[in-house]
Inverse folding.
């Protein structure tokens, strides 16, 4: 990337400067990241190989797991490497690349969660029309639109980041590059750019969250007309979805919908939604989903038998 800034590299302060705590950070987040990759890849392989998981819900879950893996990978490897490094240096171009990938896969996760909610709405509220509305071609088009929306969002973020002039210092009080910590280092008035950031990321997070909550409220209201068995199955799925939405959107809204101020808790909040939530998603969707667990068992038995 071309840039005419006097600062050509940044130093990430990470989560802690204490050598002992850094080793603890490495061990803890190595477990989290390994669990994220293994858990999400297991879901991806299970959905890809299992004929019983061919419904639109699992089609979207496949892409959620893919987005989770990439989203966590955009920050976790750098956090792990820096935990073992004396000097946590990241070049300007690497920093901008991290901003782009972080928002690309973060936005993709948001849009896929919206699509999953839409799928559940149609399945529960319009069951007779479900096969027609959510046919495979429609699902593919929706995923393509989600990727396009994520890419446009990421381009908007990187354009804002490239506008920032950096004259020094180059210490980022964070474990990754994102617009909020970069705004603190810019040698210019960042009010307008922060307003654009809130308008972009903040509006996407807040509006998507409200849309999801409204859709879940409508779905829960419509379940009154279903049988006890149907309600139980639908509630099991919805509980998983609502849990994921709250865990992901709560920290996102906290980070991206406020004035250009920073709090000591910001880094831990960011860690939760960039590394914690992708780790929890596979557990939530497998432990609470009998179909996924059964499909995994069948594939495991077939693998052992072969």
């Amino acid at each position: 990337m071309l840039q005419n800034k006097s600062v050509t590299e940044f130093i990430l302060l990470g989560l802690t400067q204490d050598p002992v705590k850094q080793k603890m950070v490495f061990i803890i987040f190595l477990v989290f990241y390994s669990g994220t990759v293994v858990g999400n890849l297991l879901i991806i392989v299970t959905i890809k190989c299992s004929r019983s998981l061919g419904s639109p819900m699992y089609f979207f879950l496949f892409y959620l797991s893919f987005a989770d893996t990439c989203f966590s990978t955009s920050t976790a490897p750098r956090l792990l490497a820096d935990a073992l490094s004396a000097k946590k240096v990241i070049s300007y171009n690497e920093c901008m690349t991290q901003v782009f990938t972080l928002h690309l896969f973060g936005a993709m996760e948001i849009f896929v969660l919206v699509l999953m909610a839409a799928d559940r709405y149609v399945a529960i509220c319009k069951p007779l029309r479900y096969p027609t509305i959510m046919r495979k071609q429609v699902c593919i088009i929706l995923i393509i639109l989600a990727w396009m929306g994520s890419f446009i969002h990421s381009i908007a973020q990187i354009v804002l980041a490239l506008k920032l002039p950096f004259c020094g210092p180059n210490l980022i009080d964070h474990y990754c590059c994102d617009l909020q910590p970069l705004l603190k280092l810019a040698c210019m008035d960042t009010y307008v750019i922060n307003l654009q950031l809130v308008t972009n990321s903040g509006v996407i997070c807040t509006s998507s969250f409200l849309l999801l909550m409204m859709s879940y409220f409508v779905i829960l209201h419509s379940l009154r007309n279903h049988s006890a068995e149907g309600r139980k199955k639908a509630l099991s799925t919805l509980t998983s979805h609502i849990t994921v939405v709250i865990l992901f959107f709560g920290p996102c809204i906290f980070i991206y919908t406020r004035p250009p101020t920073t709090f000591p808790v910001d880094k831990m909040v960011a860690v939760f939604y960039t590394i914690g939530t992708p780790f929890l998603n596979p557990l939530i969707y497998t432990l609470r989903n009998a179909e996924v667990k059964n499909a995994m068992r069948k594939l495991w038995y077939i693998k052992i038998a072969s």
